[in-house]
Amino acid sequence: MSMLERQAPDLRVQKWIGADGESTAPLKLPDLGSGPKILFAFQHWCRGCHVHGFPTLQRLHSALSPRGVGFAVIQTVFEGADENTFEKLRVNQLKYALPLAFGHDEPPAGATFPTFMEDYRTRGTPWFSVIDAGGRIIFSDFHLDADNLVKDMELE
């Protein structure tokens, strides 16, 4: 069942680093502000995340963060736990010069998938979820056209 136009579930990711790379308390959606929000899910070892996902995120962050759009990045560890580690959060944060909160989401005990994948019904990485100011999911998929989203948000 599609998540589009549904109320965005709050985040259950437990391990985070802040923009400064230091461990921080678990992030909740209201921590990202009262405006629209963009959540980006990745895996460190995902080629598409590095070739397409992070560059798209950089473009969106550069254009939309000054307009009050909140951002968070979540490493969804549904495979490759030996490579997709908590320590890789800071590596990617620095590599892409993204002063954003980065979360590390492993499956809870007894679960197959990380909480973000379960709650947002994602199907892999790179994955973008866009939430409007009212808290409804308006986009959730692999491929996001950054230029079109920036234009759409300029019209709001």
From TrEMBL:
Gene3D superfamilies: Glutaredoxin. It comes from Sphingopyxis witflariensis. This is Thiol-disulfide isomerase. It comes from the Bacteria. The keyword Isomerase applies. SUPFAM superfamilies: Thioredoxin-like. GO terms for molecular function: isomerase activity. InterPro entries: Thioredoxin-like_sf, Thioredoxin_domain. Keywords: Isomerase. Residues 2-156 form the Thioredoxin domain.
